């Protein structure tokens, strides 16, 4: 592969009247109209002085114009840099100083707070509101549409996405035109997307899942989408009779399961439900299948690597696993310390190599070098195993591994036992400092409505199911687990909240 991602996704579609998307604000948008919008936005970026390789940082609400801005930036030879809409001015200050974008696009409502920050970082500021208006749209209305796509090599950078950075500084993952295109093609093939598909797009577009997986798969297969500004279970249910597929984080599925309208009839037009970005509880998978007759297809990826593995379209979709490596992607399990390869069923570091793997962290060559093995495998930071049948299992992030009294405990193993107890909805298991054991295990547990359980009930129920050192020394009942926008449980928040627990318990004795 070579050349500009834009040409592969939208090239040649400038005269195609086929529907690309339906949106609540701007209505139906054809491929032709969308390509035209991209050409005008690209023209506006060039007029604002964009040079090939310049970053265009964007903090804007989800809208068709914001989606077009991604492809316009790529077409003009720039590097698209989306920022979470929840970021505060102080966070934006860090990202703009780190990325040094030529252009910064933000919501007009935030202009007063962000313009001085962006200007100090050397960026030209344009605005884009949720309806698609603002100084960027004004500029696009009068700019000459870009005449030709900027010529780019396959390994040139098309986008930088900052990792969520739950520990330490957030790092900018550099993704090339080929990284994105190869993954889109691989997913189209694996998930059988065709021009007949209609995807419900309810994910944010500042993250790899909604921006690349969902959007690029639709474009690469010439499919269409029902574009929703955010996840709203009623709106998703309403769209299902006109749609064929949904891509969601696990929270989408747990929330939809609470919807009384979810059944076989309401999902009869759908052919595929995909879940990713965080672990899907096996219980959710099973309940979904019981209610709808559909087995959710779980896949695994990350900002740095795009998608790595997927449960099969045709074969058995096994709950609690993330399936097999995608075409062209190699996965291996290795000793986290030495990199020595582990065998089947052995838990270790998940390492990945393939055309999907990013080009490194922006301006962090040492950090990049530290996360690759000499033979090109990227060290994901996720711990897992490959089972006898070749399915990949994730047991947690490496940094979440608990070492208590010298023993390694994988939180997932404990969470699975607790989640299986009647009365429990879900749990998060983590380690905090313990005066005797180094780390002591705490379980934060969410009970089902109306269920009553005491701390000792949980601990006793695990007796005989888990070795003593794996059982929590403290169970805390919580109303809900802290999650970020992508549905990931934020264990760092739990660790902070319960940091002094065991010292306090020791002092009270
Ligand atoms: P992000 O870079 O925000 O997409 O986060 C990537 C991380 O999310 C991975 O390294 C995994 O820890 C986690 N993740 C993604 N998909 C899954 C999945 N299906 N099951 C478990 N964890 C997942």
Architecture overview:
The longest helix has 17 residues, at 31-47. The strands form six sheets. Strands 2-1-10-9-11-12-13-14-15 form a nine-stranded mixed beta sheet. A four-stranded parallel beta sheet has the order 4-3-5-6, with helices on both faces. Strands 16-17-18-19 form a four-stranded antiparallel beta sheet. It is of the alpha/beta class. It has helices at residues 5-10, 31-47, 64-75, 89-99, 111-120, 135-142, 177-191, 208-221, 233-239, 250-257, 282-292, 365-370, 411-419, 455-461, 491-497, 501-508; strands at 19-23, 27-30, 55-59, 79-82, 103-106, 124-127, 157-162, 172-176, 198-201, 224-227, 245-248, 272-275, 297-302, 306-310, 324-325, 330-334, 348-353, 378-386, 392-397, 402-404, 407-409, 424-434, 438-447, 474-477. It binds adenosine monophosphate. Adenosine monophosphate binds at residues 163-164, 208, 276-279, 298, 300-303, 322, 380, 382, 394, 397, 486. Residues 17-362 form the AMP-dependent synthetase/ligase domain. Residues 413-488 form the AMP-binding enzyme C-terminal domain. Belongs to the ATP-dependent AMP-binding enzyme family.
Describe the protein's topology.
Layout: H1 5-10, E1 19-23, E2 27-30, H2 31-47, E3 55-59, H3 64-75, E4 79-82, H4 89-99, E5 103-106, H5 111-120, E6 124-127, H6 135-142, E7 157-162, E8 172-176, H7 177-191, E9 198-201, H8 208-221, E10 224-227, H9 233-239, E11 245-248, H10 250-257, E12 272-275, H11 282-292, E13 297-302, E14 306-310, E15 324-325, E16 330-334, E17 348-353, H12 365-370, E18 378-386, E19 392-397, E20 402-404, E21 407-409, H13 411-419, E22 424-434, E23 438-447, H14 455-461, E24 474-477, H15 491-497, H16 501-508
This protein binds adenosine monophosphate.
